[in-house]
Amino acid sequence: MGRIDVKNLCMEYNQKRVLDRLDLEVLHGEFLVVLGESGCGKSTLLNLIAGLREPFSGQILFDQRDVTRLDVQSRNVAFVFQDYALYPHMTVEQNIRFPLENLKLNRREIDHKCDGILTRLRLNDFRNQYPNQLSGGQKQRVAIGRAMVRDPFVFLFDEPLSSLDPHLRDHLRLELKQLHKELKKTFIYVTHDQLSAMVLGDRVAFMDDGKIQQIGPPLQLYRSPANIRIARFFGFPPVNVLTATDFERLSGKPAPDSKMKFCIRPENLECRADSKGCFEVQWIQQMGAANFVYISVGKQTICGLGKGSLHKNQKVSCNFKSENLMIF
Amino acid sequence: MKTEFKNVVIFLGPLLILPALFVIWPLIELMVLSLKHKVILFEIDRWAGLENYQYLLGKDARFWGALGNTLYFTVCSVGLELVLGLMFALYLRFGKESAWIKVILLLPWAIPNVVSARLWQWMLHPEVGIINHVLLTLGWINEPVLWLSDPTLALNAAILADIWKTTPLITLLLFAGLQRIPETILSAAKVDRTPPVRFLFYILLPQLNPMLMTAMILRGLDAFRVFDVIYVMTGGGPANSTETLSIYAYRTYFQSLQFGYGSSIALTQVILMLAMTWIIMNAFSSKWDRS
Amino acid sequence: MTRALHAGFYGVILLWSLWPFIWQWVTSVKVPSNISRIPPLLPEHLSAANYSAIFSNETFIRVIWNSIAVGLGATAISLVVGAMGAYGISRLLERGRRWIMLSLLVVLMLPQVSVVTPLYRIVDLMGWGDTLWSLIAVYSIFSVPLVVWVMYQAYEEIPETLHRAARVDGSSEWTIFTRVYLPLGIPGLVSSGLLSLIFCWNEFLFALTFTSSYKARTIPVGISLFSGQYDFPWGEITAASSLVTFPIILIVIFSQKYLVRGLVGSGVKG
Amino acid sequence: MTLSAWNICRNGSINLRIVAIFWFIFCAACSFDTTIDDSPNTVHYYQFSLPGLKSIFAELKRQFQEKHPDIYIHIHTLPTNTDDQHQFYLTHLQSRKSAQMDVFAIDVIWMAEFVRAGLLLPVTDLYSKSEWESFFSPILKTTLFDNRRYAVPIFVDGGLLYSRMDLLRKYGFPSPPKTWEELVSIADTILKGENEDRLYGFVWQGRQYEGLICNFIEFLPANKEWLVASNRTLQVNRSAVVPTLTFIRSLLSHKSVSPMSVLGMSEEESRHVFQNGQSVFMRNWPYAWKLAQQTGSPIRGKVQVSPLPSWNSLEPGRGALGGFLLGINKDTPNPEPARQWVRFLTSEEVQIQIWEQLGLTPARKTVFSKIQGDMGMEMGVLMEVMENTTPRPLNPLYIPISQSMQAYISGALSGIYTLEEAMDRMDNDLRRITRILSYEN
C-alpha cells in the first residue's frame, strides 16, 4: 500500500514559519502534484516526507504507521531530484546498483534486479556510460531506475523537469505518466509549473503560505479555484480579475456586491468584431490556434479570445457564459 | 536525531581532538609559562605574575623594534607581492597564457625556505655574489652593495627574497581569480569602451576583490610569523635590524634560555595574530554559515 | 612588435623565477676551489665532485628516505582526518562552521616558534623523541587545516542533492563519504595531498628540534648539516639543494593543475 | 573535474585503499626504526658535524672497541651551527627523561652555563696534574670551576692573522704586522700603491653573530676586561670598550682599511674575499689555511699566518679562544665507560689523528712536536697562538649576554647607535640579563 497522511505539520527555518499546521492525505497509487510558487514550502514538505529533515512538530504517517522520527534510511522512499543527482563518478549500472548495495543484498540478487530495471527502462545500451554522457531523457530514466530498484513505498519528485527545454519536458512528462501507470505506486511530484501539474496529476494540491490551499483533480482547481491566487496561478494568458465597477462595465449587469472580485479566463471571454461594441482592441497576441485580444475596461487591460478577423483599434463586444465566471 | 550526533562525532572528532591536544595544550602551557620566570637549565621556576608583560610592553625597546620590523616586513612584502602578482596575473590573463609558465612560477614557492634563503644569501654575497657582480658589471653601482650587512638594506633584502618566493603564488591565485570573472562582464566593458585604467579599477579589481582579500590575508598572516628566511639569511642582524617577533622569541628561548620571557613574546605574537584573524573574520562576515 | 613585447615580458618572468635555480645549479657543478671566484660567471668545466660527495654520504640518502616517509605518513594521516573533518563541516554541521574554519586557519598560521617547546615536551612524553613518528604527528596537525580548507571547498562544489540522494538510497554517512564524496573529491585530495607533502618536505624548525640523529632527520636539517666548522661548502650545499629541488620540480611539472586548484581552493570559496 | 580521476576509483572500496596506504606508511616508518643496541655499557656520544667526520669517528670507534670490547659507542651528530647545537641541548636536557646522553661535545662558551646547570660530572681525576698540564692553558682554564675540572678539551681554536706576504714584500715589509697601528699603516701603503678598486686592507668577521664577539675581544687592549662585575650585575668597562670601538670604526670609515661589508661577513665570507686575492690581511681561524693553500687557490703560497696584532709590540696579540670540550652527563648510568671514551678521544694518538684527518688543532700542546703542519703550516706559530688565546667571559649567562652585546656592537659599528647609546643599552641589558640569576630562591 502507499497511503501517506501528513498531520498538523509545522516547520521553521531561522524563526520563519515555512509550514504552518499543514494537513495532507495522499491516497494509494495516486499521482499527486504539489503546486506552488517558489519558496512556498513545497520542497520542504517533500524533504519532510522523505525524512531528509525533521519537522518542528506534527506527524507523518505511512499507511497509518508513524514515521515522523524515522531516518530517511528506514523509510524506503524514492526521491528524484531536480538535477537528478546521479553520481557522476559511477556508470549507469553502478548508479542503479548503489541503493541495492546499501541494503547489503547478495550479488546475484543485485544483478538480477539491476538487469530488470535496465531492460525495463531501455537503458541496456548505456549501462557502462557515465551520467555526463547521457541525454536529459536518459538521465531521468536512470534517476527513476535508481529510485525504482528498491521497490519504494512512495516516489517523490522535486521539479525534475523544470530545467529542461520545453520539447524534452513534454516528452518526459508523458514518459513519467506512463511509468506511473505501470508501477501503480504513489507519486508525489512538486512543481511550480502549472502545465506539468495539469498534465501529470491525478490530483493537484495547491500550496501557499505554508498550507495546502486547495486539493483536487486538476480541472477542479482550474475551473473552481478556492481563491484568486489559485485562479491566477493557472492558465495562460492569465485570468482576468475585475473589480465590481469594471465587471459592471464589461458585462453591463450590476455586481451583486461592490467588494467582490470577478474572475474570468481569457478563453471564456469571447470578443467579436462589432462596430457597435463598446471596447476597443489595444493589441493582439497571435497564438496560432487562437488569437487573444487585449482591451481596456476602465483603467484595466483585460484579455479575451478574439473571434473573426480583428485589427488594432477595432471595436469589439464581449460575451461570456455565467457558469464560467468565478466570484470571490 | 541521535545518529546525526554520532556522525558528527565520528567525522569531526579526530579533527577537533588532534589540534586540541597539539595546539590548545601547548598554548595553555605557553600562557602559564609567560607568567613565570623560568630558566629550565638552571632550575629557576618562579611565579612572576604580569612582570614579564610589564617589561615587554613598557620597557623592552627590542620588542617594539622587532614588532616594527615584523610589521614592516609584512606590509612591504605583502604589498609588493600583491602589486607585482597582479601585474603578472593581468599579463597572463590578457596578454598571453601558457601552462609551462605556471610550472615555472610555482617552482620558487615549492622549494624549502631554508634552501631559498641560502640561495639568496649566496647570491647577495657582497663580494662573490652574482647580484653585485652583475650590477658592478653593468655599472649601476660603483662598489659592492652590502645587502645583508647594511642595517638599512638587510630587511629589504629579506623582503626581496620573500617576494621572489611568494609572488608567483599570488600571481597564480590572482590569475585564477581573473579567470573566474565572467567573460560577459569583460565583453560588456569592452562594448562600453571602458578606458584601461577605469577597466582595471572599476571592473577588474571589484570583481577580484575576494581573491585579493584572501591572498592578502593568508600571506599577511604567513609573513607575520616569518622565521626561516631571516634566520638563515641574517640571523636577525645587523644590529637587530632584521629581528622579527619570531626571531626574537626564538632567541629568547633557545639562546637566552628564558622560557618565561620567551613565552610572553610568543604569546603576544599569537594574540596579535588572533587579533588579525578576528578582524578578518568580521570583514568576511558569515561567509561560511549557511542561512 | 607585440611578439617582442610578449617575449620580453616572459623573459623577465623567467629570469626572475629561474635565475636563482640556474645559479644554484651552476654553483653546484663548479670545481670546489673555484666556487668563490667570480668572474668567471660560468664554470670552465663541469665537475661532479660536489654530487659525488653527497652520494658518498650514505646518511644523506637516509635523510631523503626519512623525508619521504615523514611526508607520506603525515600526508596520509592529514588526508584521512582532514577529508573526514571537511565532510563533517560541510555536510553535517548546521552552525559553527565559521568558527571551526577560522580556528583551523589559526592553527595553520600559528607561529611555529611559539609552540615548538611545548610540542617537544608532548613528543617526549609520548616517547617519540628522535623518531619519525614525532614528525609525522606534528606535521599532520599542521597540514590537517590545509587539507580541510581545500577539501571543504571541493565538497562545497559537489551538488548538495547528491548527499540527499545518497541518503534516500539508504546509505549511512560513512557510505556516502567513502562512496560518493571521497571519489568525487579526488582532485581535491590530490591537491591538498601535494600541498601537505610540500609542507612536510620543507619544514625546518620542528625537524631540527625533534630529531637528534639520522634516524629521523629530514632534508632541510640534512642540508643544515652540510657545513664545516666555519665554512659553508657551497658546492655541496648547492648540489644537495639541487637534488632535493628535483623531486619538487617533478611534482610541480606533473601536477601543476592540481596544485593551482588546491592553492586557489584553500583560499577562496567560489 | 576529469573523468579519469573518477574512473580510478570506480571499482573497489576506498576503505581498503586507506588501509593499504597506512600499512605502507607504517612499514616504511618502522623499517627505519632500527633499534639501538642498549647494552648496559653503551655510551651515547653527541657531537658537532664536520665534513668527513663520520668516517673518521667510525674508525676511532673501531679502535676504541678493540681496546674495550665490552663498551659499545653510539655516535650522534648534531648540526654544525653552534646555535642549533645549543638549542638541541637545551630542548633535550630540559626534560631529563629524554634520550640517553652520556658524553657530549661542548663549545667553550657553554661551559659556565653547563656547569652552573649541574649537567656535568666532575672529571678531575681523569688525568694526573701533569697530564692536565699538557693541554693549552687558556682552554684548560675554561674547564675549572670551584677547583674541579668538568670537561676535557678535544680541540682548540684561536684567531690568527693571515697576511699576503707577496704584497707585503712588494712594498718592503718583511714580516706581518705586530701591532694594530702597523697593520693599518701597511694596509694603507699597499692600498695606495696598488690603487685597485676591489682590494681591501683587512677583512674580519663583523656580522651580528658569535664571531663578532670573538673579533671584538681581539681588538681589546691586553689585560683589560670589557665586562666588569659591579654590585652583583655586570657592567661594560667603558674605558676599554669605547676606544676599541672607536678604533674599529676608524678601520671601517670610508675608503679605509676594512670595507663596510665586513659587517655582514662571517668566516666564510671573509675567507672568500681573501682567497680571491681581494684583501691584504684577514683575521680567521686556522681552518682557512688549508683552503688558502689548496690547488687552484689564487693565493696559494702567498700567505703567511701569524699571531694577531696587539697594542704593544712587545707582546703578541691574543686570538679569541674557541674549541670544544668533552663533558660527561652527571646522570649517566655508565660513568666508567663514558670516562674511558673521553680519555680515549683526548689521548695523544687520537688528537694526532683528528689533526691529520680533520684539521682540528690538538688541544694538547705536547703533541705538536709529533705532528707536521699541513701544507706548510708553521706549527710554532699555531702553538704560540693557542697558548695565548683569550677566552670569552666565563659566565653562565654568556649566551644571552653575547646575544645582546652582538646587537649593540654591530649597531655601534654600523652607525645605528652612537657609542654612548650603545654603552647605555648594553648596561641596561646586562642588568636585565644578570637579574635572571637572582630569580633563584
Give the termini separation of chain C: 38 Å
Count of DSSP-assigned helices of chain B:
12
Mean of residue pLDDT values of chain B: 82
Principal-axis shape of chain C equals: globular
Low-confidence residue ranges of chain C: none
Name given to the CATH homologous superfamily of chain B: MetI-like
Report what the structure shows:
Chain A is 28% helix and 31% strand. By secondary structure, chain A is of the alpha/beta class. Chain A folds into 2 domains: 4-233, Rossmann fold (3-Layer(aba) Sandwich), CATH 3.40.50.300; 240-327, OB fold (Dihydrolipoamide Acetyltransferase, E2P), CATH 2.40.50. The model of chain A has no long low-confidence stretch (mean pLDDT 84). In chain B, strand 1 and strand 2 form a beta hairpin. Chain B is 74% helix and 3% strand. By secondary structure, chain B is mostly helical. Chain B has one domain (57-290): MetI-like fold (Orthogonal Bundle), CATH 1.10.3720.10. Chain C has 12 helices and no strands. Chain C has 270 residues and is mainly α. Chain C has 2 domains: 1-47, no CATH class; 57-264, MetI-like fold (Orthogonal Bundle), CATH 1.10.3720. The radius of gyration of chain C is 22 Å and the shape is globular.
Brief summary of the model shown:
By secondary structure, chain A is of the alpha/beta class. Helix content of chain A is 28%, strand content 31%. Chain A starts with a strand and ends with a strand.
Write the layout of secondary structure elements.
The complex is a heterotetramer of chains A (328), B (291), C (270) and D (441).
Chain A: E1 4-13, E2 16-26, E3 31-35, H1 42-50, E4 57-62, E5 65-66, E6 77-80, H2 92-102, H3 107-120, H4 136-148, E7 154-158, H5 166-183, E8 186-191, H6 194-200, E9 203-208, E10 211-216, H7 218-223, H8 228-233, E11 240-242, H9 244-251, E12 262-264, E13 270-273, E14 279-286, E15 291-297, E16 300-307, E17 315-319, E18 326-327
Parallel strand pairs in A: 3-8, 3-9, 6-7, 7-8, 13-16
Antiparallel strand pairs in A: 1-2, 1-4, 4-5, 9-10, 11-12, 12-18, 13-17, 14-15, 14-17, 15-16
Helix pairs in contact in A: 2-3, 2-4
Chain C: H1 2-28, H2 49-55, H3 58-92, H4 97-109, H5 112-125, H6 132-156, H7 160-168, H8 173-184, H9 186-202, H10 205-210, H11 219-224, H12 234-267
Chain D: H1 3-8, H2 14-32, E1 42-47, H3 53-67, E2 72-77, H4 82-94, E3 103-107, H5 111-116, H6 129-132, H7 137-141, E4 144-145, E5 148-149, E6 151-158, E7 160-164, H8 165-170, H9 180-194, E8 200-203, H10 210-219, E9 227-230, E10 233-236, H11 238-252, H12 267-275, E11 279-284, H13 287-293, E12 303-306, E13 321-328, H14 335-345, H15 348-358, H16 379-387, H17 398-414, H18 419-434
Parallel strand pairs in D: 1-2, 1-3, 8-11
Antiparallel strand pairs in D: 3-13, 4-5, 6-13, 7-11, 7-12, 9-10
Helix pairs in contact in D: 10-17, 11-17, 17-18
